[in-house]
Design goal:
Strand content: 5-15%
Distance between the termini: 44 Å
CATH class: Alpha Beta
Number of helices: 11
Number of domains: 1
Strand order of the largest sheet: 1-2-3-4-5-6-7
Largest sheet: 7 strands, parallel
CATH architecture: Alpha-Beta Barrel
Structural class: alpha/beta
Number of strands: 7
Order of helices and strands: HHHEHEHEHEHHEHEHEH
Radius of gyration: 18 Å
Length: about 290
């Protein structure tokens, strides 16, 4: 792989934040995607006291080559997951909650009913807290998707992750057009929910393939696109092909905006859930 550029290296402050919040996570918040996916950007979020909660257990039924979430036989989770998140919201005084899960193809509804349950529990306890969910594709089942939409989180995110040509290589069990349809169906089901998607670059995509992805997601009706650098989380994952310079992320932002996408957040450390609270309030401010 190419050597890690300076703009992607963590500061001592961020490393200290990772250590500090990680200790809290070990005791009070056992399921956090930031830890499970070994997110290389968690220092930035942890230094601000924010994180993304993981529901529906830790084991994923798929094995995407860019991801380090555990794979194996899933374990069904009960109401305790919502209790843990509510406790964390109170302890960390969170005003914006981001929730995601592994893909659960073993469940009839893909876990969508549990998403709805957790969303509603948080709303009952903290009516003013904003909620963003980052969902799997539920194997394209609109009935499952409708359960999440009916719970009315403020933001629903489903990540494309990469361009069409790389889907078969890096996204086991996923389908490019199925994911586009998830975004399209969210928009059709509820015009008020913010629809969001994200992708990582540096896995071997071309700029032309990226432009096509921008056009396809715009046509699907997204409000927000995030573009960030893929960083290899473990030795078993695919290698980085290219580290994009910050100026190239600015170029990609302009190209995505030209396709008609309203809000584009592009940069080396951007992830779909990375500083999601900041992104949400920037959108709210622009809307005003």
């Amino acid at each position: 792989m190419p050597p890690l550029p300076e703009w992607l290296k963590s500061s001592n402050r961020k490393r200290y934040a990772v250590s500090g919040l990680s200790n809290i996570l070990k005791t009070d918040i056992p399921n956090c995607i930031c830890q499970e996916a070994k997110c290389p950007n968690r220092g930035e979020c942890f230094s601000r006291g924010v994180l993304t909660f993981l529901i529906l257990g830790k084991n994923c039924t798929r094995k995407c080559r860019y991801c380090s979430v555990l794979h194996g036989d899933p374990v069904n989770q009960g109401t305790e997951e919502a209790d843990i998140i509510i406790n964390a919201v109170r302890k960390l005084n969170l005003k914006f909650v981001v929730i995601t899960s592994p893909t659960r193809d073993d469940l009839i509804d893909g876990g969508s009913g549990h998403y709805a349950y957790v969303i509603n529990r948080i709303k009952d306890e903290f009516p003013d807290v904003k909620i963003e969910v980052c969902i799997p594709d539920f194997q394209g089942d609109t009935g499952s998707l409708s359960k999440v939409v009916a719970a009315c989180p403020d933001v629903i995110n489903h990540n494309m992750e990469t361009v069409k040509a790389l889907f078969l290589t890096v996204r086991q069990g996923a389908d490019y057009y199925r994911s586009l349809n998830v975004l399209r169906n969210i928009r059709e089901m509820n015009q008020d929910i913010i629809v969001k998607t994200g992708l990582m670059v540096g896995m071997g995509e071309s700029r032309e393939e990226l432009r096509k992805l921008f056009e396809d997601t715009k046509e699907a009706g997204i409000d927000v696109l995030t573009i960030g650098q893929y960083l290899k989380p473990g030795k078993e994952n695919i290698n980085v092909v290219k580290y994009y310079h910050p100026t190239e992320f600015e170029e990609m932002k302009r190209e995505a905006e030209k396709s008609g996408i309203r809000y584009v957040f592009s940069g080396p450390l951007i992830r779909s859930s990375f500083l999601a609270e900041d992104v949400y309030y920037k959108l709210e401010k622009r809307a005003e």
